[in-house]
């Protein structure tokens, strides 16, 4: 005896393929959806299909976009002398939320990770290099990859490639987060905070 | 400057409406979906639409089904003398996983909860009573609502309704779970376990 009608089983299977959604959560989500009004469920399905269909990579910065070049690359208000290199599109969203940075971006879609078989060719590094070759306006490349082993390796790799080309290459600062507590900071963060100290006053 | 393309924003909004999915998770899921092959994404959207379209309530037991009466109610192999009353369709799945119970079910779709404004009329109680009136074959109603305040109240309410009708009404046992540890059992569970003790050997 099947535990569910086949269409429920298939829905659970599909939902369980999503990251962070296990079997139990998938089941809970499925039964939730079955209890929702039909137009609400249709709106979700449509949003999924529509986003997947309209969204592609910007041919300039490799960010996800529904127009090419993307809104940021096409905007005349952005400072074209700096490119901020991030690992993924979510990082662009975080930077934009800050409302401080007015330059351009480049999205790598990953970080170099020999352990997971991700080399420089598996991320959008070549696109960045081609872009820098073609565009003389860029004076600074800000490496904003994550402060993880992979992100650091990627930053270092990029810095070594870009330095000989005479482009100013900077790395975002790491240290104690604002509102954080020295007592709870890990050793590496604390060491970075000490290393990056500046004169004040 | 919008942080996302509109179709990504809409996808995140729709995903964030799901239970247990907050803004951050919705964002993560959305970007995951955008990175998946198109047929995988279409399969998910289709499973959602298909399940919502084909699934309705069984007119006999109120379980979710794609045929009416549902597979369990229609099966000649089931014991028609007992009905197990549960709160929701997931509970039927749990009971069926056990492969022990061969009777029928009745799904209440909730439990009586005056605090949340759920009275006897908001759950599928009337359907159960009508079913018992029409069907003389039922000899036992097993109350398998959850051992929560609401589930207990619902069980008690049902028991008081059914007793005068001369139907054997039983409640599933509560106690220390198998593989559980007395040391970690809460007081109420322990009290229930003592209360429900039986002679052995």
Question: Could you characterize the architecture of this molecule?
Answer:
The structure is a homodimer of 201-residue chains. With 201 residues, chain A is of the alpha/beta class. Chain A has 8 helices and 6 strands. The first copy, chain A, has 2 domains: 6-54, Orthogonal Bundle (Helicase, Ruva Protein, domain 3), CATH 1.10.8.420; 57-199, Dna Topoisomerase Vi A Subunit, Chain: A, domain 2. In chain A, β5, α7 and β6 form a beta-alpha-beta unit. In chain A, α1 packs across α2 (23-34). The termini of chain A are far apart.
Q: What's the layout of helices and strands?
A:
Two copies of one chain form a homodimer.
Chain A: H1 6-16, H2 23-34, H3 38-54, E1 56-57, E2 64-65, H4 71-74, E3 82-86, H5 89-98, E4 104-107, H6 125-134, E5 140-143, H7 149-162, E6 168-171, H8 187-195
Parallel strand pairs in A: 3-4, 3-5, 5-6
Antiparallel strand pairs in A: 1-2
Helix pairs in contact in A: 1-2
Would you kindly provide a brief summary of this structure?
The structure is a homodimer of 201-residue chains. By secondary structure, the first copy, chain A, is α/β, with parallel strands linked by helices.
């Amino acid at each position: 005896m099947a535990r569910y009608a086949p269409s429920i089983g298939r829905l659970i299977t599909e939902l369980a393929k999503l990251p962070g959604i296990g079997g139990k959560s998938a089941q809970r989500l499925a039964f939730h959806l079955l209890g929702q009004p039909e137009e609400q469920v249709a709106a979700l399905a449509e949003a999924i299909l529509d986003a997947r269909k309209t969204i592609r990579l910007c041919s300039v910065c490799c960010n996800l976009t529904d127009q090419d070049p993307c809104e940021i690359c096409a905007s005349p208000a952005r400072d074209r002398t700096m490119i901020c290199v991030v690992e993924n599109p979510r990082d662009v969203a975080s930077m934009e939320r800050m409302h401080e940075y007015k330059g351009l971006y480049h999205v790598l879609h990953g970080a170099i990770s020999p352990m997971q078989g991700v080399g420089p060719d598996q991320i959008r590094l070549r696109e960045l290099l081609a872009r820098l070759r073609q565009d003389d306006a860029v004076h600074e490349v800000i490496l904003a990859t994550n402060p993880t082993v992979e992100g650091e390796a990627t930053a270092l790799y990029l810095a070594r490639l870009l330095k000989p080309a005479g482009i100013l290459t900077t790395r975002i600062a790491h240290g104690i987060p604002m509102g954080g507590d020295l007592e709870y900071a890990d050793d590496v963060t604390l060491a970075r905070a000490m290393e990056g100290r500046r004169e004040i006053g």
